[in-house]
Amino acid sequence: MTAPTRLLRRVAQIAAKALPAAGAAYDLTLHRQQDGGSARIDGTFAAGATSINLKDVPVSIPGLALGATFRIGASATTYTVTNTTTTAGGKLAGVEFAPPLPSAPVNGGSVEFAARVVEHPCKGLVTGYSDHVIAGGIVRATDKRTIILGATLPVGVAPRPGDRITTPGGVISIVPAGTAGAPPVQSDPAGAAFECRCA
């Protein structure tokens, strides 16, 4: 058995013992910076509409959540998304928003999304690292070990380097990719638990 496989198996065992149920875990919030981007109107929509379809949605926008904002064409109006949608095949269907459209947008017209921070409430545990691990130079003495239960995150969402996590003790950040020592994020094959190295 390779060292990474043993480590991932150990993460799953620790999660199973330390977090037998989501109720036994801390309430955490995973904060993710979502980049802005461009898309295009997909279809014909009348003035007064409060829902549109979009196409050519970039991979950087896996979906939209409540509070996301966008502009259509050269209009100065900012629209706020009022539902949650998932990008499928480069398209977003049924994007609901406010205020209503003052006029009919052009089919194929541009839509610009603003960058924003998306919050994902979840459950997990925050601990320090053992003296043995610190002495081995695998992590820094100030690093925090955060285990997040995969089932408490939305489908398709997993912690990644640079994400911030709000914990009962304050806000910590997953170390950047390329940081020497232990990887920023490790998981068991099923994604049941994510071990995040935070600072």
| N-to-C order of helices and strands | HEEEEEEEEEEHEEEEE
Largest sheet: 7 strands, antiparallel
Strand order of the largest sheet: 13-12-1-10-11-15-14
Strand content: 35-45%
Stretches where pLDDT is under 50 for at least 5 consecutive residues are 18-23
User: How much helix, percentage-wise, in residues?
Assistant: 10-25%
* Shape by Cα distribution: elongated
CATH class of the largest domain: Mainly Beta
Q: State the helix count.
A: 2
Q: How many separate domains?
A: 2
C-alpha end-to-end distance = 30 Å
Beta strands, count: 15
Q: Report the mean per-residue pLDDT as an integer.
A: 89
Q: What is the CA-based Rg, rounded?
A: 21 Å
User: At CATH's second level, what is the architecture of the largest domain?
Assistant: Beta Barrel
- Please identify the structural class as seen in this structure: mainly beta
CATH topological fold name of the largest domain: Thrombin, subunit H
Protein name: DUF5666 domain-containing protein
Organism: Azospirillum himalayense
Write the layout of secondary structure elements.
Blueprint: H1 3-18, E1 26-34, E2 37-41, E3 51-55, E4 63-64, E5 69-72, E6 79-81, E7 85-86, E8 92-98, E9 110-113, E10 116-127, H2 131-135, E11 144-149, E12 164-167, E13 170-173, E14 185-187, E15 193-198
Antiparallel strand pairs: 1-10, 1-12, 2-3, 2-9, 3-8, 4-7, 5-6, 5-9, 6-8, 10-11, 11-15, 12-13, 14-15
